[in-house]
């Protein structure tokens, strides 16, 4: 995209004489004319060719569209890597303001630029890297020099016996450190720390299995991301305590080492950190992507780097319908969440707790997650005519702070049932304002959110009788679930909150099973083995984890309902129920 050049005075006038010829940018330190004068002999043939190509002349019929004229071959004995012929764009003409920021972003790669000279002035066009052409940017040279210097210093210190060996994250096999200390002392929570942790001697000599983990532990999704991180760390600790994962090609067990990055709930950062883990840290797989937005950003990297990516926190169809061959997910599709929600409400009608013909107000987040949720609801209603009618279907933006206008529309819709699809921060904010407006509906749900401890802490008894469709519950009547709850509580010091930890825990178990089945650390072998994994007994509803053709599991949802005094019951399906549903909700 052309940007205005910051050259002034004589430089601009000199450039203007050359008008619309597109020249490779060879400007040093902002002195346009100095570079041009010095290379006048080389510029002359370009100018002549440019005038002929553009038909420059005087008059209104003159062609004003800029055209690229190739730079001539360098003088004999001079390479294109010569600084005279390869000045990075970020050094061009002392760019300022928006132009400078654009150049700075481009400057992270060895990109090149061109000067568009017209009778109206001089502009800079940034374009991509030229394969095999020109030299590396000064910034990259400096970075490489610093890395070499650090490596040299590390070797010197190691030779003197004074180096501190980086500790593999989440503990190596046989670690007896307490869970709380292990988390704070050994987990890399920043990119710099992660790089340090993943460059230890074990990783270099193939003595560990490196797994990348990219989750939000800061930002709007910090709480769920932290819970999923804890589930992953618990699984890794338990595997390492048993000696690690057997790799047949090496004839031994290897412990798992986590290379962790906090993406700060930011999509662009999340994608770049996954790319870093796959390309630089050389992990065998990446686990991450809590939320649809972060999952979508991360998922594109798996096929690009042919590295397995497993998400325990994103389930939108937009991720798993792209034909990607290297992605997997331990959450069932979101449209199934909407469908199960309606199955539960339909069952309440059949039980006589609700009446037929009730009206539903739908309010969902403006994401693919929200779209899938609505699709599941509408599919069930279409298959079961006469049960319910949707009288309102509205969307809202993620992390909104004011839902009063939207809730007034809900009030005006005069619906009997209020169904929303929201992430935890929006659920808390929306229901607080719902309560303040004095709204009432016979049944209330916020999709997969409802039983979270943070919500009850923020809203108190206002969360009573809200129901949610979730991917897992600590109240499932399975022996393995009870054992997991005990282990997780001992490891973290708190009980599992809602469903977040279990799918992340199962992602590690499935990956470990695939590595053992593959018998090697070859990426393709692990991917192919993961497609065949059939994890039994699993923590997830149905007690079986098996990936479909698109890489996603399809396990049942459970419906839970908040009760007074902080109690949460599974109320559907009946074979897993720990309590009876309360319907309709009593008026406060």
Please give a structural write-up.
The protein is α/β, with parallel strands linked by helices. It folds into 3 domains: 2-132, no CATH class; 179-332 and 479-554, Response regulator (Rossmann fold, 3-Layer(aba) Sandwich); 335-470 and 559-576, 3-Layer(aba) Sandwich (Rossmann fold). Helices cover 40% and strands 16% of the residues. The protein is built from 20 helices and 21 strands. The strands form 6 sheets. Strands 1-5-4-2-3 form a 5-stranded mixed beta sheet. β20 (558-562) and β21 form a beta hairpin. α9 (222-241) packs parallel to α19 and α10 packs parallel to α11 (292-305). The radius of gyration is 30 Å and the shape is globular. Residues 1-43, 45-144 and 159-205 have low confidence and may be disordered.
Please describe the structure with a list of short key phrases separated by commas or semicolons.
588 residues, alpha/beta, Rossmann fold, 3 domains, 5-stranded mixed beta sheet, 5-stranded parallel beta sheet, 40% helix, disordered N terminus
């Amino acid at each position: 995209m052309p940007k205005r050049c910051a050259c002034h005075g004589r430089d601009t006038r000199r450039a203007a004489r050359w008008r619309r010829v597109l020249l490779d940018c060879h400007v040093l330190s902002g002195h346009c004319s100095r570079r041009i004068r010095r290379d006048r002999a080389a510029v002359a043939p370009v100018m002549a060719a440019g005038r002929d190509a553009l038909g420059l002349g005087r008059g209104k019929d003159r062609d004003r569209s800029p055209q690229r004229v190739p730079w001539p071959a360098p003088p004999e004995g001079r390479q294109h890597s010569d600084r005279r012929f390869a000045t990075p764009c970020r050094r061009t003409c002392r760019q300022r303001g928006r132009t400078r920021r654009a150049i700075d972003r481009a400057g992270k790669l060895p990109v090149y630029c061109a000067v568009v000279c017209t009778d109206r002035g001089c502009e800079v066009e940034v374009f991509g890297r030229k394969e095999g052409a020109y030299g590396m940017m000064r910034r990259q040279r400096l970075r490489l020099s610093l890395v070499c210097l650090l490596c040299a210093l590390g070797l010197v210190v190691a030779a003197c016996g004074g180096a501190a060996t980086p500790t593999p994250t989440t503990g190596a096999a046989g670690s007896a450190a307490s869970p709380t200390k292990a988390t704070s002392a050994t987990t890399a929570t920043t990119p710099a720390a992660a790089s340090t942790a993943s460059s230890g001697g074990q990783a270099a000599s193939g003595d560990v299995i490196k797994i990348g983990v990219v989750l939000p532990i800061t930002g709007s999704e910090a709480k769920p991301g932290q819970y999923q991180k804890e589930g992953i760390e618990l699984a890794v600790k338990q595997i390492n305590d048993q000696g690690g994962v057997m790799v047949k090609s090496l004839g031994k067990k290897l412990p798992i080492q986590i290379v962790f990055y906090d993406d700060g709930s930011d999509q662009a950062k999340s994608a770049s950190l996954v790319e870093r883990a796959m390309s630089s840290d050389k992990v065998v797989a990446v686990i991450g992507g809590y939320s649809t937005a972060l999952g979508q950003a991360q998922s594109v990297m798996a096929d690009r780097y042919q590295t397995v990516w497993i998400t325990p926190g994103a389930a939108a169809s937009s991720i798993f319908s792209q034909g990607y061959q290297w992605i997997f997910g331990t959450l069932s599709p979101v449209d199934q969440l909407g469908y199960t929600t309606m199955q539960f409400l339909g069952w309440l009608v059949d039980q006589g707790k609700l009446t037929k013909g009730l009206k539903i107000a739908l309010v969902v987040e403006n994401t693919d997650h929200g779209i899938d949720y609505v699709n599941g609801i509408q599919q069930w209603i279409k298959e079961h005519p006469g049960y319910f009618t949707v009288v309102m279907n509205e969307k809202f933006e993620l992390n909104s702070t004011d839902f009063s206008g939207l809730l007034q529309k809900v009030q005006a819709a005069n619906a009997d049932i209020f169904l929303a699809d929201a992430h935890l921060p929006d659920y808390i904010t929306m229901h607080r304002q719902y309560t303040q407006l004095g709204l009432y509906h016979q049944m209330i749900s916020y999709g997969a959110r409802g039983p979270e401890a943070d919500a009850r802490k923020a809203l108190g008894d206002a969360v009573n009788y809200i129901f949610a469709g979730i991917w897992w519950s600590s109240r499932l009547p399975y022996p393995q679930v009870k054992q997991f709850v005990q282990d997780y509580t001992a490891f973290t010091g708190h009980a599992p909150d809602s469903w977040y930890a279990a799918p992340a825990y199962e992602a590690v178990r499935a990956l470990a099973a695939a590595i053992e089945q593959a018998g090697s650390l070859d990426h393709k072998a692990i991917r192919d083995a993961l497609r065949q994994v059939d994890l039994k007994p699993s923590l997830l509803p149905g007690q079986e984890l098996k990936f479909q053709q698109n890489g996603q599991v399809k396990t049942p949802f459970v419906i839970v309902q908040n009760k007074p005094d902080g109690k949460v019951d599974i109320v559907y399906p009946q074979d897993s129920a720990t309590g009876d549903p309360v319907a309709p909700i009593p008026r406060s």
